[in-house]
Amino acid sequence: MDHMIFASVSSLLPALVVAITALVVMIAIALKRSHFWTATLSVIGLNAALLAVVAQAAGLVSIGSTFGELFVFDGLAIFNTGVILIASLACCTLSYGYFETLKDNKDELYLLMLISTLGAILMTGAEHLAAFLMSLELLSVPMYGMLAYTFLRSRSLESGLKYLIMSAAASATLLMGMALIFADTGTLLFKDLAKILLSGQISSLTVVGVVMMLSAVAFKLSAAPFHAWVSDVYEGAPAPVAAFLASVSKVAMMALALRFFIGSLAMMTPAFDTVLIVVIVLSIVLGNLLAIRQDNLKRMLAYSSIAHIGYALIALLSVGAGSIGLVSMYMAVYALTSIGAFGVITLMSSPYRERGHTSIGGEADDLRFYQGLFWRRPVLTAVLTVMLLSLAGIPLTAGFITKFTIFLAAVQGLQFWAAGMIILGSAIGLYYYLRILVNLYKKPKVNLEFDAHEHWGIKAGGVMVMIVTLLVVVFGILPEGMMQLASLAFVR
């Protein structure tokens, strides 16, 4: 009995460390408000959780099922938990410089971020429909506050409210889908559901339930045609929070989707492939076509994310259960590049800093603010260039390796239409990514509305962005290490 309790606790070690960190931060805020100490305690806790993940991956800490099989911590959970913690660390680091000049209380943001990260970690290991919903809501509810955190800016408040309303509708759809599946099968466990599906003892209730759950998952991933919220939410959100939504939230949701659809064999339901094909085609086509029209960098990245989710889902359709490592690797690289791109926007933005006699509102998210950036911030321009080339899938970047492996999976799975969609989507994507790159090297503007700090490279956010850039380049040139890491992602 003691051994089972110890195994359960050690399996949950990263989540427990993050939960304890959230409690410590809460107590610290209650005792004395200090932006520096709140951010520092958050970063220390996240680093400790990351060390726990490394210990689990190295086999120093035992892992397995926990608490009546609500959660299972296997390779898929360990890999994605590591990615989530790295992304959360990056977002915390970026938030420190961004919110430094905010006159309102800053400390609660880190508390919300830690709680949301805890939900994301639990999502990677959910093995039960109740755990599915609980962990998803633990991720989503703090996001409402984070998105609207700079509520004095009307766009930020609008962002939080839109995500609240749309996310509530998606959660209701998800819960209804779960209710239909339970009504038909009498079980909430993924593996028991798989046995029932294998036996063929299902009715139309389960099929409708699975389709409703797929629709709710597509909303959370911002896949078309459930993408209407994403551009406004990204644009209105504070830049570090948008980075969190684009990385932590997407990685956790995709890991949970993989575990549910593969672990429960929900993919075997008759309508699943048809719905997934529609989602993939619409995501790639609409995502790329809508991104072409954007002059706002955050909106462009939002629409671009729709297309990238479409690419990732191609692997799920093409190779089924064998897609776990492939999709996990794709989402990890996408998370890194999103953090890098939003990191540059964060470093360029100073929405609360007074300049002269005026106080500038908004963020450096318009394309015109980046005209001629190369001539005054060459290193920062190099960072953004690498991120955009990686998103476009240009060789010598990690984005090229992941997109190529997805293309290869589509061909090997005889999904030639999907391979064609990757080529078409990448061609369209190349146009709007290059449009931004050309703008970076144009003649600089005389009047600068926004600019990065003179010594941005030695600040915590700047160092983090350069580390992320280095990872994207190294994984692009030497992809073996990234592929070996992705091979750790498996379902037990």
Could you explain how this protein is built, in words?
Helix 5 runs antiparallel to helix 6 and helix 14 packs antiparallel against helix 15. The chain has 492 residues and is mainly alpha-helical. The strands form 2 sheets. Strands 1-2 form a two-stranded antiparallel sheet. A two-stranded antiparallel ribbon has the order 3-4. It is built from 19 helices and 4 strands.
Quaternary organisation of the protein chains: single chain
Largest beta-sheet details? 2 strands, antiparallel
Order of helices and strands: HHHEEHHHHHHHHHHHEEHHHHH
**How large is the share of residues in beta strands?**
under 5%
Summed up, the helix count is 19
Mean of the pLDDT scores?
86
**What is the overall silhouette?**
globular
Total strand segments:
4
CA radius of gyration is 22 Å
Strand order across the biggest sheet?
1-2
- Percent of residues in helices comes to over 70%
Alpha-beta content class: mainly alpha
N-to-C CA distance: 22 Å
Low-confidence stretches: 354-360
